[in-house]
Amino acid sequence: MTGLPGIKTTETPIMLRMSTSCLWITLATIAVSPAGEIQPSDIAREIDARLGIDSSEKAPLASDAEFLRRVTLDLAGRIPTIAEVHEYLADERESRQMEAIRRLMQSGVHDRTMATFWRRSWVPQADTPEFAGVTENFELWVGQRLQAGTPYDQLVQEIVTFDRLPAQGSATSPVGFYDANQNRPENLAASTTRAFLGINLDCAQCHDHPFARWTRGQFWETAAFFALPEVQANGLTMPPKVRVPDTDLEFAPALLTRNEIEWPEPLNSVGLREILVDWMQHDDQQLLARNAVNRLWSHFFGEAIIEPMDDLSRDEFQTGDRAALLDALARQFIASGYNLDVLVEGMVRSQAYRLASAVVEPTETKPTETSIGSIEVDPMTDSETENSAPLRWNHAAVRGLSGEQLYDSLQTAAGLPPERSDLGRDAGRSPRREFAAQFYVERTHNAERSISQALTLMNGSLINELTTMSGNRMLGSVLSSPFMSEEEQIDTVFIAVLGRHARDAELQVVQQGFAAHPQATREQHLGNLFWVLVNTSEFNTNH
């Protein structure tokens, strides 16, 4: 895994509900970017070159409507509005995609969307009723720091070295990270290494596993960084020792790589954690950057580059094309100054991100190739050989929607304000939070809708309200526009819900359905159409 920061590589039937019924790796040349200036285009080119997107055998790209919907869901956490769809589809400039990306990224809702993503990555306990209250403040704090343009490494440093002793008043802070881990050194050690380094120390807490890299001693040595220093009789402070429960074993702080530590004097709890986070930022394995890249990749592409995401340090994940891709992006992320906006924009500007979600069979299929999600690998029995097999990226992954995305998209489709209204302190269990909790998914790339969730979308009070003129501003606007023909009204509902124009065959089927029920009002017809569309897989997935 070699390379320099700042390099870029280039190649030489519709259902109706009526009211009366229910990577080949390619050889590449290297061009050097201006020193210290990593641009999103550098990251996009790196991704495409390493995934073979620039090869002569090109997979089809998503349509303009599909791309706009995908990128809006990923960057803003909702589907595009009717106005956004019309404006984008009418724009024939080559720069329209880049301008749409930047418009979305410069919106306040983007920072709040990513705050939810990072909070869920760092404090997954917040998705349980037990800890929901103590971590709402944490997500708000993350959003404010993202809006301020805080570099990722500084963001992590502020969390790990947070001093909760000074009075915080009503200010937002990362204290939720500590509250969610009950301020216990062992919980904080496990969460810190998993969330920020992609290292799973949990299994080593109780015993040494014969096949695990990390030992019980290393777990408790890491936990000691979150304990309070010992104060000697002479007033001097010493590194703390933590005792393993139900044993006589005690461990002092030590880094996982066994680097020598120069202890400051006096030593306090923040100083202890500053030593830990300094090592996290400068360790040769670059796990801080690699973990961030890996998690963001899973947000935009479905499956992470390396799975599972909390086991990046395994020896077999240090070589092969996946590791090379991850390392290259991590180096560029570091060279950018840990700039999250540069990394995010680079990912969504890549051709890989723009690929259509339909699976395209290659013209030549090698007998040993098999597809895993959007990646094809060579199926060997040896895990290290599997990891070194060529990557072939030929289609985008179809992903489920998170509970937050689904709620905000329903609101947007109905012409209601898409911006979040639950961001104030002590917001409580708002309808949005209740809905998001009911439709919670751990990972969108393998999300499956439960029976109760499907029934809620079919017959829940929110959906029933959105099928009426009084609860749906979009329907109200369409119905109060006498200049619109029936076909135009139907098409508008399609644009509002699916982000695209209705196809001719769809128009014909819907109009036939309307004609078959002349006793129903136009409001009932369009409300039923809205109900049908929001219950389709096309609406309920990010494709």
Strand-residue proportion: 5-15%
Q: What is the SS-derived class?
A: mainly alpha
Shape: elongated
Number of helices: 25
Low-confidence stretches: 1-35, 362-387, 420-428
Radius of gyration: 26 Å
The tally of beta strands, per DSSP, is 11
Report, as a whole number of angstroms, the end-to-end distance.
33 Å
Q: Helix coverage percent of residues?
A: 40-55%
Mean pLDDT over the residues: 82
Order of strands across the biggest sheet? 7-8-9
Q: Give a short account of the largest sheet.
A: 3 strands, antiparallel
Which terms summarize this structure?
543 residues; mainly alpha; three-stranded antiparallel sheet; 25 helices; 11 strands; elongated
